[in-house]
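Quick one: examine the sequence and fold tokens given here and explain what the tokens say about the fold. Here goes:
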Amino acid sequence: MTGTTTVLPSHCGVIGGGRMGAGIAHALLLASRRVTLVERDEQAVEAARERVARAFEASVKRGVIGDAAQPMSRLTTVTGPAGLAEAGLVIEAVPEDLDLKLATLRAVEDAVKPDAVIASNTSSISLDTLAEALARPERLLGLHFFNPVPASRLVEVVIAAATDPALRDRAVAWVTEIGKTAVVVRNAPGFASSRLGVALGLEAIRMVEAGVASAEDIDAAMTLGYGYPTGPLRLTDLVGLDVRLGIARYLERELGTRFAPPDLLVRLVEQGHLGRKTGKGFYEWSES
């Protein structure tokens, strides 16, 4: 791969059409790329397409673009990885489950051309572990987008031990081309963003659990006192309490008990209170 162009491939793939995957597809379409979005069945495909369409409707309202139809015309939605055969870059954005990600990456490698780059949107799982799924691990790196993708300016570029060194500069150029800023980190548990973000979020949950202050007041302390755009508990609701719990358990295994999830977080997840996507977490939400 050394010496190949830094221009974002004209045809990109995204596998997984949830909130993150749809947001990544939206970013690539805004960069005038053709995008193939893969989901597990026709119902999930339709839901993913609707998510992307809603993102473009919001972009029109914000004045980012004048018409949603033109970028949507470059989006293809399919139910299997065979549709990724011509993509030069494929970004995996399935849920944060190791076995699912390994199986997905194997299926992607079987479907794409030999020089295609494969990226994972994982927020915490070791890229070295994910690379073990591939016959050519040098083509894998992390492109960790942030929620909500259309509004977030950051993409974390994660370099695994086997990643082709030339991919570093290519990935940074691609991130710039879609209008975001790249930070480059070495593969480590939680990388930089999840490790710091989860540490803050878990401590905020412990403070609610101990009755130190309400979720609203803890968040206000961070937004008004420290200039955070979103408080750690509201952000936990946006990310998903189940996602935060999964990352915390992974980091606890890798880095020790300082990442042990609070009982309150475990109870809320067991009760199905996962944040914005279920209508309730640390806050009440009007949309599911």
Observations:
- The chain has a mean pLDDT of 93.
- The radius of gyration is 19 Å.
